[in-house]
Amino acid sequence: MRVVSLSLRDFRSYEQTRLTLGDGLTVIAGPNGAGKTNLLEAAYFGCTGRSPRTANEREVVRFGAPAARVAVHFEDESGRHEITVGFAAGQPKRLRFDGASIERLLDAPGRPLVSVFLPDRLELIKGPPALRRGHVDQLVAALWPSRVQTRRAYAQALAQRNALIGRIRSGLSSESSLLGWDAQLAGHAVRLMGDRDQAVAAVAERCRRISLELGLQAELLVSYRRRSRAATPEEFAAELRERSAQDVERGFCTHGPHRDELTTRLADRELRAFGSQGQQRVSLLALLLAERDAIAAQRDAPPLMLLDDVLSELDPVRRRALIDLLRSEPGQSVITTTDPDHVPGVDGVDVRWLEVSDGQVLEGSLTGAGEVA
């Protein structure tokens, strides 16, 4: 699968533009504030139907315009396809796949997968566990699309059990009524934990290897930390019964995969608490690249990598290591930079250069030591 081009209309700072991506690495160069990040956001928006930068999608509509629209043109073994996402404030989002209306792009078979690095995504390392749990569930969905329903079924059963706990606290039900929901929740929980275990195992060794290639002085160890030791639904249901009085006292279910954690350790210390900004940044890159490799191995369709301002805080050795990784592995990558000299060793014909200037995307070419003209 290959993303051929993007078309934007009234998206962020762009009134109308189109850009064509290279088969491998595409570099977008331009000064701060030129709109480079907006292009990456548009690519993500077009592939997923949502923004990686904001929950308030009114922000993606160009100031003074009534609506924003992004079209993603891609091709696979069956031919060329188009995804379009239209958004106007106060109206339902308009999603189309090859001209047919759909409800969710995430459910669309054959859509391009996408992975994004933005400076704000360091929250995936530094932020609360819920962010990391959600990320692991997205990885499960990318590796095995048919397993998406397990997470939804668990969330629904958990909500029902919590509602029942509320009725018990109000005196409207007895604690024994939890048994039925315990059994149902347990089945979904064991499957969900198994999916997460498999997903993290698929990237752990890759992540360790890539972290060293990117210049970390210690191995990055990624693991899935369970609260439950249950191997079967019956064992998990027993754990829930042991905690039922505590659940009723606190008003919610205190045990299960909704409390689990994805841990990252460097030199046997928690990266979240003890890692430097640079270590966290490189570790996040290693994790995303490891996930790309795992998805490519499982589905033969590596995600489009979108890397925003990733080079500015890396030293020259790590810059070169990252670029070499992006060029050596299958799949497409788009990287933004304010300084073309930060992108070493890409004077070959396999790299596509674009320049952003005054709201326009221009074809670029290397004229010398990293200079774009």
Which structural traits does this protein have?
single chain, about 375 residues, alpha/beta, six-stranded antiparallel sheet, six-stranded mixed sheet, 10 helices
User: Count of helices?
Assistant: 10
Query: Low-confidence parts, pLDDT < 50 over ≥5 residues?
Result: 365-373
Oligomer: single chain
Q: What does the largest sheet look like?
A: 6 strands, antiparallel
Distance between the termini: 30 Å
Strand order of the largest sheet: 2-1-4-5-6-7
Number of strands: 15
Structural write-up:
With 373 residues, the protein is an alpha/beta fold. Helix content is 39%, strand content 23%. It contains ten helices and 15 strands. Strands 2-1-4-5-6-7 form a six-stranded antiparallel sheet, with helices on one face. Helix 3 (129-143) packs across helix 5, helix 4 packs across helix 5 (178-213) and helix 5 (178-213) packs across helix 9 (277-299).
